[in-house]
Amino acid sequence: MAEAERIIGTPDIPEAAGAEPEQSDGKSAGAGAGTERPKGRRRIAVLFAVAALAYALDLVSKLIVVAKLEHHAPIEIIGDWLKFDAIRNAGAAFGVGEAFTVIFTVIAATVIVVIARLARKLYSLPWAIALGLLLGGALGNLTDRIFRSPGVFEGAVVDFIAPKHFAVFNLADSAIVCGGILIVLLSFRGLDPDGTVHKD
User: Model pTM?
Assistant: First the structure.
C-alpha cells in the first residue's frame, strides 16, 4: 500500500498533475479548478468504464460456457492450437496454486479496494485503462470465488480458453495480464498515475 501511495503521489489537488499553481487572483484560480478537476473525473470515468466492460465480457462469457460447453467435448477454434474447453479452477490465474483459494480471494479483494482508493488521484489516461483492466479482471474472478461451488470464498473459477501447450484461462485472466503489462510499460516510460513524468 505504501508503494502504491508513493507512485500515485500524496497531493490530492490538480497541481500534482502538473497544473499551474493557483494564482492569488480569484478568476485565475477558478479557471484552473474548472479545467483540471473535470479532467481528473474523466480519468476516473474511463477507469470504471473499462472495468465494467472487462467485467461484463468475462461474466457473459462464463455464463455461456457453463450453459453450453461444460460437460461437453472441447470446441476447436484453430485446430489443435486453440480450443474452448470448460474447466473449474480453484487456483490463481492460469491454474497456479489451487491449495490457496481463500488467499487468492483475499488478494483479489485487496486489489479492488486499493484501486478504488487510489482512483481519486488518477490523472493519466493510460493508467486509467491499465487499472480498469486490473479492476475488471479481479472483479470477474472474485465473483466466481464468492458465488460458485464449492462455497463462498472457495469457489472455483470458470476457465475455457485453452491454447496448445499452455494453461487454460478466461477473459478476466487476460484483462489482468494486459493491465499488468501496461503498468510495467508505463513505469518504464516514467509516467506516474497522477500524470507526471519522471526520469530516474
Answer: 0.74
